[in-house]
Design a protein that fits this description.
Length: 965
């Protein structure tokens, strides 16, 4: 052996050793990777999906591609990568696995599932067909093949699959019922297979049995629960769906499908953005490409009028699956709404190319259009859905609800359609509740049951009211609706398309069912463009779930929606139409003042461009803060700006484009203008913000500085007082006065505490000093001085103080309300100043539009002083809130007699007799007035009723004689 040979030999030996070492390393790496596989399920069950995916990636990398081990790991890796949104990588793994081993059924089935996720429906069908051909007993492939079959409209395959699972169930029913189950998922596949033909059995003998045995065996299989939840959601059985999604999250925390499902339920059933948003954020953090999460987020963006943001989420969903039907419908709606008809048509064409019988696409379009108030446009899409698939309940349901919401003329047809939909899907409570309430409006002809709501027509309306209160509410509704029509036609320069219907619903349940379809409290009124519903005033007041409310103003609010919706062709932002209606109704809404004050001083009121967010965060702010926007437009540019804005919305312009065009101002300039409106308002609202712990901490920090101003000390003192810390409040107020003897707030605080201790002289001294320093700032001082002067019998001084108090804070309605104090004081003067006393009562009605007590007291005082015009105003206001007091109607009858308004006098006396069937005096009076008008038949009925109550009544007998009876 020469040197060179020996070197070669040594090299060869070294090489052989290296190969052996590498092989051993590979074996050990594979073994180590194999050991790490044990952690995959642990990570999955802990919600640590990315860690699980990384382990599986390492295992694939460690194994020889295409080897038995690689083939075994591939399907699990692909499914885990699917969870975190790595769809392309997962699809590639399955394609490689199937290419290397065409008989790897797990990989082939997983390939079909991922092809569905990617919208490759034809390819998915081929994959599942291949599995079924090779393994006809593979129930998973049978069940999942439904997904691409449905997407492509292959009803032949759907029926074949359904028949297969019915046969399977019948052959194994005894085993299933006896609990002899090898694989609980087999029952879930049965549920998946029969759900279209028999959803009830799909739930009960499919998914729910599968869930039971999965739980019994302690398995962690989310699919059965997810499929069950999806079916429940599909059938509008939202409570059941929410339970199933929650169950998944117990054993698979942060599972994106379940998180997105929960968010979807919250939005569909409650529109609860605050709860849905964090769920979606969490789902997208795990799977940034999650289709359902993106589409639910798009729904949220649409509700907030952030249409461009919605489009981004739709496009994100389509990037994963360019053929996803729901995503296509969302994109089609986007183009439809912004009036790009050509692009909307392109999307529609694509959806129909995938499935020529794609009824779901049109139902989704209809629902999305409804969500944007397109109640007149949506029906055409539901009709298309019915034409394409007469066997699908959704088209009938959507068309039925929309038709019923067109008002009286749509009730019969709407009920017929809803009955058909409900027969196909008995899980739908919305349909059931609407059918039930329509039976009350229409009766049930088949059962020979008459309606309990009466119908009456005026020049422009069809009116509906319950028979229990028809004769009380009808005359007012007839008058107020026609007055609103005339007033608003003049204001808006527009007459709406009819026929218009107003339904006065007897109960909160009837109101909720007639509008949203489920029991929801607190809904006073709803508008659908041609139909307005209003809750009966009998549902408001003391001891009722709803406080007293002005039902006339509720109607005027809803009717303003008719104008805004129709003028804008149903494209007005929801916050804008609520704000506009609040402006038109001119209701005082005093209970919202503290809310505005709190948010203003904390800098939390939204700018114009974000006001749509109020709708689902705190809807009342869309009304009351939004109203300042309308007031700004009206004040600076006239109401013509509002009319022009509605027309621009109709032309497809968005909010910013519209308001910029009608005002010629930038958004910052408009927001500054609205803020000035709020500031002007707050000058007459002497409320301080509510102080929470964080606010207290800030006040304490500011006051703790050695150079803290007197006002800062006073602010903290007032905060302490509101929290019952009186001693601290006194000490700080005194310290403030040491720094600045003219600190009005400190003087007022000390005066209030002195008054609470009955030290009226001490209190009076503080308050007088305060008013002398700054008479425009000291509402508290003037108000408390009024109380003190009244106690002392100093009437003129009390009047002066209370008048100043109500000038500074006209919306104050707390204890010792100046509106209730002043009338008595004015009548105590010598001579009495009755005209001023009466004016205070009238001002009280303007300050609080829901105040029946002021209306009643004002009415009685007006009658006493014979101010019939003022008395009529008070009587009308009382009836706008509570028309159920006979005494008010008797007084109102007399008032209108004095005003020579005989028709209204008859109305009032008649309503008094309806409310008090023994009111003989009112029967006689209404009879006498009917006799004067020549209504002899009515007069005869009235006198007959009077004499049946009291046959000796002189007035009744005299009228009987005059009638010649």
């Amino acid at each position: 052996m020469n040197i060179s040979q020996s070197r070669f030999f040594a090299a060869a030996c070294l090489c052989a050793c290296l190969w052996a070492f590498a092989g051993a390393q590979a074996v050990r790496a594979e073994e180590a990777a194999g050991e790490s596989l044990a952690w995959v399920d642990e990570y999955l069950n802990a919600g640590r999906y990315k860690e699980a995916a990384e382990i599986l990636r390492k295992n694939l990398a460690a194994a020889e591609k295409g080897s038995e081990r690689w083939q075994k790991v591939a399907p699990k890796a692909a499914d885990t990568l699917r969870i975190i949104g790595e769809y392309k990588e997962a699809l590639g793994i399955c394609e490689e696995a199937v290419k290397a081993a065409p008989k790897n059924m797990a990989a082939l089935s997983q390939l079909g599932e991922l092809q569905c996720e990617a919208g490759q429906y034809e390819e998915a069908l081929k994959s599942f067909d291949a599995v079924i051909a090779a393994a006809p007993e593979n129930q998973r492939a049978w069940g999942l093949r439904l997904l691409p079959a449905k997407a492509l409209g292959r009803k032949d395959l759907v029926k074949k699959t359904t028949d297969h699972f019915f046969e399977l169930f019948n052959s194994k029913a005894e085993d299933y019922n006896a609990g002899k189950v090898d694989d609980p998922m087999e029952m879930a596949y049965v549920g998946l297979g029969i759900q279209d033909e028999n959803p009830k059995d799909a739930f009960e003998v499919g998914f729910m049995l599968a869930e039971k045995f999965i739980q019994k065996k302690g398995l962690k299989q989310p699919e059965a629960f997810l499929w069950s939840a999806d079916l429940a959601f599909d059938k509008y059985y939202f409570g059941f769906a929410a339970e199933r999604y929650a169950e998944v999250l117990k054993f698979r925390p942060k599972y994106p499908d379940a998180l997105a499902g929960q968010a979807k339920v919250l939005m569909a059933s409650q529109h609860d953005i605050a709860k849905a948003q964090p769920l979606l954020k969490e789902a997208l953090a795990i799977n940034p490409n999650h289709i359902e999460a993106h589409l639910t987020q798009a729904m949220i963006e649409f509700t907030q009028d952030r249409d461009e943001e919605a489009k981004k989420h739709i496009e994100a969903a389509l990037a994963t699956n360019p053929n996803h039907n729901v995503a296509l419908a969302n994109l089609g709606f986007y183009y439809h709404f912004i009036r790009q008809a050509d692009k909307a048509a392109e999307i529609e064409k694509k959806a129909l190319a995938l499935n020529p019988k794609n009824a779901e696409y049109y139902c989704l379009m209809g629902e999305l259009i409804e969500d944007k108030h397109g109640f007149l446009e949506a029906p055409e899409f539901y009709k298309k859905a019915i034409e394409l698939d007469p066997e699908d309940w959704r088209g009938y349901y959507g068309l039925g609800m929309n038709t019923a919401r067109q008002g009286a003329q749509g009730e019969e047809e709407g009920k017929r359609l809803l009955l058909k939909a409900f027969k196909m899907n008995a899980f739908n409570p919305w349909a059931k509740n609407m059918i039930t309430v329509l039976d009350k409006f229409l009766g049930d002809k088949e059962q020979d049951v008459p309606p309990v709501y009466f119908t009456n027509s005026t020049a422009h309306y069809i009116l509906k009211f319950h028979k229990k209160e028809a004769e009380v509410v009808r005359p007012y509704l007839e008058e107020w609706t026609e007055n609103a029509y005339a007033d608003q036609a003049k204001r808006f320069g527009f007459e709406p398309q009819g026929p218009l219907t107003v339904s006065l619903c007897l109960s909160t349940n009837d109101q909720a069912a007639r509008t949203v379809g489920i029991p929801v409290g607190g809904i006073l009124g709803v508008c659908f463009g041609k139909l307005c519903t209003v809750l009966s005033p009998r549902e408001g007041g003391e001891g009722k779930p709803t406080p007293a409310f002005n039902w006339r103003k509720v109607f005027e609010h809803e009717y303003a929606h008719v104008m805004a919706l129709q003028m804008s062709q149903f494209r007005v932002p929801l916050w804008f139409t609520e704000a506009l209606s609040t402006f038109v109704e001119n209701d005082s809404r005093l209970n919202t003042d503290q809310l505005i004050v709190n948010l203003y001083y904390k800098g939390q009121l939204k700018p114009i461009e974000k006001m749509q967010e109020y709708i689902y965060e705190n809807r009342i702010l869309a009304y009351v803060h939004g109203r300042f926007v309308i007031e700004y437009l009206n004040k600076e540019f006239g109401f013509e700006a509002v009319r022009k804005a509605l027309k621009l919305f109709a032309a497809g312009k968005n909010l910013v484009q519209t308001l910029t065009e009608v005002t010629g101002k930038t958004l910052p300039e408009m927001n500054a203008g609205v803020e000035n409106q709020v500031k002007e308002f707050l000058k007459k609202v002497r409320l301080r913000p509510s102080y929470d712990e964080a606010d207290m901490a800030k006040l304490e920090a500011a006051a703790s500085s050695a150079d803290a101003a007197a006002q800062q000390l006073a602010e903290l003192a007032i905060a302490y007082l509101t929290h019952g810390k009186n001693q601290r409040a006194v000490a700080l107020a005194q310290k403030a006065l040491e720094k600045d003897p003219k600190c009005v707030d400190a003087l007022n605080l000390l005066g209030v505490l002195a008054m609470e201790k009955k030290d009226y002289a001490g209190a009076q001294a503080k308050f007088v000093e305060s008013t002398q320093i700054d008479p425009e700032r000291s509402f508290t001082a003037w108000h408390r001085l009024g109380v003190i002067y009244k106690k002392e019998g100093r009437t003129t001084k009390a009047i002066e103080a209370f008048e100043m108090a109500r000038k500074l804070y006209p919306r104050y309605l707390g204890p010792d309300n100046p509106y209730y104090q002043l009338p008595e004081l004015y009548t105590d003067l010598e001579p009495a100043q009755n005209d001023k006393a009466m004016q205070v009562w009238l001002d009280a009605l303007d300050a609080n539009t829901d105040d029946t007590e002021a209306a009643e007291k004002g009415l009685k005082f007006a009658v006493e002083i014979k101010d019939w015009k003022a008395a009529a105003a008070c009587a009308n206001r009382h009836n706008e809130i509570n028309p159920y007091k006979p005494e008010i109607h008797r007084l109102a009858g007399r008032v209108f007699e004095e005003l020579k308004d005989t028709p209204r006098a008859i109305r009032e006396y008649h309503v008094a007799t309806v409310l008090d069937e023994k009111d003989v005096e009112s029967f006689v009076k209404v009879g006498r007035l009917n006799f004067v008008l020549g209504n002899r038949d009515e007069a005869a009925k009235n006198v007959k009723a009077a004499l049946e109550i009291d046959g000796t009544h002189e007035g009744a007998k005299a009228l009987q004689k005059d009638l010649g009876l």
